[in-house]
Amino acid sequence: MKRLFFITVFSAILGCNAQKKVDLSTTDVNMNYIFSSMYSTQPLHKELFNNSLFLSVYKFSDSKLSKGKMISESDEFMSSYMVSVTPDGDRYTGSKLYKIEGVFNPKIIKVEEDKYPFFTIKVEHGLKSDRKTESFQFKGE
Question: What is the pTM of this model?
Fold first, then answer.
């Protein structure tokens, strides 16, 4: 019985040692702002140009841009998208980061490949009664 207890406790201790807390605190105020404002919805991930570029788009509430521009009926904040483009899907290399900012209630309609390495993201945004679609072109390399 002692032996079984010892094996159980020892196994539990070994299992806990594999887990650790990593402090990723940063003094970069902009990164803290973006991460704390991200929506919990799934980001958009898309492979472009036959897996030559990998796109990730994250939506976040951009209250800094909303000052004086909130919709009074709903107190809605402006939103923005962070766009990350990684070559060949290698997450350990640097990515290009872009920001689509200052849009009300945005929805990504389409991501289109243009001539390599350019691509376009079409975003619909605005009030329910006044929606418009804008295209934003990016360079992936």
Answer: 0.72
